[in-house]
Design goal:
Elements (H helix, E strand, L loop, with lengths): L1 H30 L2 H41 L17 H17 L4 H13 L3 H16 L9
Length: about 150
């Protein structure tokens, strides 16, 4: 719950920032010179890019949580079977072992979104965030019946 509160607080701060930057862009455009209009238009683009990234990130998190809830209802969520150091960090060898099992499971049934979801969790545990995100995107696409490119995770 705390993570959601922090996320929404930061998202709200970003939205306020986008509004402030956008208003500065409008002020520059109102100046009316070639340079200020050019800068104003450039500044106006930044909030749109930021809003797009915020939307995509929020959509990804909502979709991943939707899959997690569905998998939890089925009793198929991955169990935390990782060995941890006394400080609470995940043991690298343990993460590698679980990852190898998840990868084999996914290779056997590449069309199952549940396997891709568990593989994404294993990638995350192994601290490979880019691959974790790609695997989760593939799980979401498979779940929703979307077309998947051949170069996916």
């Amino acid at each position: 719950m705390r993570a959601k509160i922090v996320y929404f607080a930061l998202a709200a701060v970003l939205v306020v920032y986008f509004v402030l930057v956008g208003s500065r862009g409008v002020m520059l455009i109102r100046q009316g010179t070639v340079i200020t209009v050019t800068f104003g238009l450039a500044v106006m683009i930044l909030p749109f890019i930021g809003a797009w990234f915020l939307y995509r990130t929020t959509k990804f998190a909502r979709d991943a949580n939707r899959l997690a809830h569905e998998l939890e209802a089925e009793g198929g969520l991955p169990v935390d079977e990782l060995v941890r150091t006394p400080g609470g960090r995940i043991d690298r060898d343990s993460a590698d072992e679980v990852f190898a099992r998840r990868k084999t499971e996914t290779e056997r049934t590449p069309g199952d979104w549940r396997c891709w979801f568990r593989l994404a969790v294993a990638y995350h545990d192994a601290r490979d965030t880019p691959r974790a995100r790609k695997a989760m995107q593939r799980a979401i696409a498979l779940h929703d019946g979307k077309q998947i490119s051949a170069s996916g995770a």
